Amino acid sequence: MTKRYDALIIGGGHNGLVCAFYLARAGMRVRVLERRHIVGGAAVTEEFHPGFRNSTASYTVSLLRPKVIADMKLHERGYRIIERTISNFFPFPDTYLKLGGGTERTQAEFARFSKKDAAAYPAYDAALEKVAQVLRDLALQCPPNVGGGMGSLISAAKQGWPLAKMDLATQRDLLDIFTKSARDFLDGWFEDDHVKSAFAFDAVVGNFAGVSTPGSAYVLLHHVFGEVNGKMGAWGHSVGGMGAITQAMAKACEEYGVEISLEAPVSKVLVDGGKAVGVKLESGEEIAATIVAANVGPALLYRQMIDASDLDADFNKRIKGYKTGSGTFRMNVALSELPDFTVLPGKEKAEHHTAGIIIAPGLDYMDQAFTDAQATGWSKKPIIEIKLPTTVDDTLAPPGQHIASLFCQQFDPKLGNKADGTAQSWDDVREEVADLIIDTVTDHAPNFKGAVIARQIHSPLDLERKFGLIDGDIFHGNMGLDQLWAARPVLGHGDYRAPIKNLYMCGSGTHPGGGVTGAPGHNAAAQILADRPLLRKLLRA
Predict the structure, then answer these.
(1) Which of 97, 503, 510 shows the shortest CA–CA distance to 270?
(2) Does the pTM exceed 0.85?
(3) Using CA atoms, how far apart are residues 45 and 56, in angstroms rounded to an integer?
(4) 472, 413 Cβ separation under 8 angstroms
(5) For residue 352, is it within any domain?
(6) Helix, strand or coil for residue 379?
(7) Which residues, at least 6 apart from 450, have a Cβ–Cβ distance to it below 8 Å?
(8) What is the pLDDT of residues 200-211, one digit of tens each?
(9) What is the spatial distance between Cα 234 and Cα 99, in angstroms, rounded to a whole number?
(10) Which one in 78, 130, 271, 527 has a CA-CA gap of 20 to 30 Å to 287?
(11) 387 and 436 inside one domain
(12) Confidence of residue 242 (pLDDT cuts 50, 70, 90)
């Protein structure tokens, strides 16, 4: 083996960098091993066509925890977020809806469709905010290791106490969100389908499910517990793209001596005597370490990087059943001009161009998209969010031209057989599906197809191969009740400790889940450092 490290981090995504930073700041010798040529994982900015750069996977900001931003001094390293004037713009066949811009403005918009819904909105917003605060409070806490003795019982009681202090109405809302479908939850608040659609979209983001699928209401909540520039629930654009965030994180790591190795893919975690002792790279090189922290998803870690013989039978069974697949198809498009929407005409930059543009006209439309994907592999009328970053950051494209991020749902990561019984792959249909997505946008903005200069396609299979996202899962695993908090990824190992000594998990497959939060990296580092006294003799002074 080559020289020894106190800690090796598998994967240089944002959580891996956050974990490395905290460990290095505490005095540990840390090395990050990233398989790609660029650090940042799925939060990167890359040129996808000459002169056109974009956040090629993750594309918008809200969930990154303020403590992480402050501790890593990201603002001092160029971190800058531009807030959306309005959050979202929804084109419907014969009308549109704008969401955001303040309570009164949103109420006025809802009143165009339902005065009752306009009146209900403040109470809905307040109720969701109360429950979202629970997530914020829990995000930077290590879940209890259920079955781990008295200490875990005390931890569970401490984390559960704020829930017990909630008023009954809030407890009921919390139960509804964790168990109900987004449709059922929203039906309890609103009557108009346009209004409900404005919220239901969040329930299917990164979630291979319909809005009528039980448990889908939680994903709705997961997307509102963030904040931008101190404004709760807001979303924004990172100047320079998402890669600007991870490049700033890398600088923070390097300031504390973290060694970042690119094009260094890990093939295997080395285990000796029931303990992780290092890793083996695809090149054959072996690197020794006292601690290994994996910023890859549980499906990749335990099914491909660790021998099944190093795990007990029950854990192997559980991890085999760990659910992945977010139904996401991601595209980046170079444009000669901005889209001109039929229901809100104009190619000059306007307020709605700076928002998230959501093509999901109705709850039935969203459910049908999922039904189609289950039946044929992809939706005939997909759900699409369009972001036009160049409307707020003109450094990303040549003058007068634009880029579009297309975040698309629902696409079955595991395609079935063709009608003749032969197997099919996403490689066989990715261009056809990309055409379908372009045509779907063009149905609402007739100039869109003609404005396309170039496109970059990331099918679910492309996301797996390029970013290590098994089944194209942007969250490293489904966000259902059975895979959250102390049960993420597996009950008994929700505290970032793997079932192998000295091996930890620090990615989105742990609490609090997916999105660019930095929380798993922060929490895993805290757990490693809490365990450090037990390993003091093995660590350098």
Answers:
(1) 503
(2) yes
(3) 6
(4) yes
(5) yes
(6) strand
(7) none
(8) 999 998 899 999
(9) 12
(10) 527
(11) yes
(12) very high
